[in-house]
Every structure is written in C-alpha cells, then in structure tokens.
C-alpha cells in the first residue's frame, strides 16, 4: 500500500517565541518595575482610600496589599501602564465593598453584639467630630458615600471617580450633590 505524503499546510508554521520563559517584565502590559514604582508612589494614598471606606487599619492594609497582588497577577491585561493606578483604585474600592459585606454577614451571625471599647481619647472634641462625620457617612447611600470619599477624601476629579466606579460624570455629580445635602442634614441633626 503506497504511503501518501500529507498536503502542505497553507497556514504558516508557528514561530517559536524568542522571549518564551523570559522575564515577566518584558511581556505586554504593565511591567513589574512600573507596578513597583506605582506601589512606592501611591501606597499611602490607596491606604487612605481604604481607610475612608473601612474603619480599621489592619483591614485597610490587607485590602491595599490584596489589590496590589491582584493587579500584579493581571498586569498583562493592563495594556496602558498609565491606567495602573485607576485599576488599583477600582480594586481597592471593590475589595473594601467585599470586606464590608463579610462584616455585615459576620454581625448577622453573631448571637450578641460586640461591646464597645472605650478609649482614653473618647472625650476629645476632635474624636467626637470625627465620630459624628463617620456616623453621618455611614447613613448615606452606598454610591453617595463612595463618590464623596473618592472625590473629597481621595482628592480625585469627577472624571477619575466616574472611571473608578464605572459611572458617568453626570451620575458622579448627582450622587455627590445628593450625598453632600444628606450629609449636611445628618450632621445638623447630630449637633
């Protein structure tokens, strides 16, 4: 029986990647060096962002570190390195939301509420004012709170807030305006 040679393929043969196994910093997307520089430059601001959405330092640090880990793992998908910070901010906001959801679930599962811990600074005027602001912020709708935190505490522009939260600039303005009005009413009621 004669052996028939296979027909030559019309598709070109794959060219082996010269960088296969090369350093990750040579691949497309955000480089490890750029992410490292972003970490050094923006760690504290991202920590501050998380602190405004959460209420304890350990959770804030965990959220920011987890955000950097996730963006590092997905850095090849961040095609434009200048958007790395935007991805990090969005990840911090999302992880903060998740942490708050876990806390709410944990509180629902507790049989009795946790006792309040009194601190030495409890009587200080600044602490009372901060507590009143935090209480008033917690009374806002979720989107209003997120817009106000990003806009005024993280010092982001309306366009940056819109990109971070996936909203239009008009929606950011509306949530911000309504949030400030609700915050003003809540703070006056506490006074």
Automatic annotation (TrEMBL):
Signal peptide: none
RNA polymerase sigma-70 region domain segment(s): 39-103
GO MF term set: DNA binding; sigma factor activity
Location of the region described as Disordered in the Swiss-Prot/TrEMBL record: 1-25
Keyword Signal included in the entry's annotation: no
Keyword entries, A-Z: DNA-binding, Sigma factor, Transcription, Transcription regulation
Residues annotated as domain RNA polymerase sigma factor 70 region 4 type: 131-183
InterPro entries, per the entry: RNA_pol_sigma-70-like, RNA_pol_sigma-70_dom, RNA_pol_sigma-E_actinobac, RNA_pol_sigma70_r2, RNA_pol_sigma70_r4_t2, RNA_pol_sigma_r2, RNA_pol_sigma_r3/r4-like, WH-like_DNA-bd_sf
GO biological process, one term: DNA-templated transcription initiation
Family (UniProt): Belongs to the sigma-70 factor family. ECF subfamily.
UniProt cross-references to PANTHER family, sorted A to Z: ECF RNA POLYMERASE SIGMA FACTOR SIGM (PTHR43133:SF50), RNA POLYMERASE ECF-TYPE SIGMA FACTO (PTHR43133)
Record's protein name: SigE family RNA polymerase sigma factor
Lineage: Bacteria, Bacillati, Actinomycetota, Actinomycetes, Kitasatosporales
């Amino acid at each position: 029986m004669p052996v028939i040679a296979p027909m030559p393929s019309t598709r070109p043969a794959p060219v082996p990647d010269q960088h296969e196994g090369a350093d990750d910093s040579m691949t497309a997307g955000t480089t490890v060096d750029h992410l490292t520089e972003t970490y050094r430059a923006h760690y504290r601001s991202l920590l501050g962002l998380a602190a405004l959405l959460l209420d304890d330092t350990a959770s804030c640090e965990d959220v920011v570190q987890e955000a950097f880990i996730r963006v590092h793992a997905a850095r090849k998908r961040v095609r434009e390195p200048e958007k790395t910070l935007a991805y990090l901010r969005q990840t911090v906001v999302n992880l903060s939301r998740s942490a708050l959801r876990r806390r709410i679930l944990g509180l629902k599962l507790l049989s009795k509420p946790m006792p309040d811990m009194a601190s030495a600074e409890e009587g200080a005027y600044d602490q009372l004012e901060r507590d009143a602001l935090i209480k008033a912020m917690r009374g806002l709708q979720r989107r209003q709170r997120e817009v106000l935190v990003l806009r005024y505490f993280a010092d982001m522009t309306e366009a940056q807030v819109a990109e971070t939260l996936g909203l239009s600039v008009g929606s950011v303005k509306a949530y911000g305006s309504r949030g400030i009005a609700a915050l003003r009413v809540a703070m006056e009621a506490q006074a």
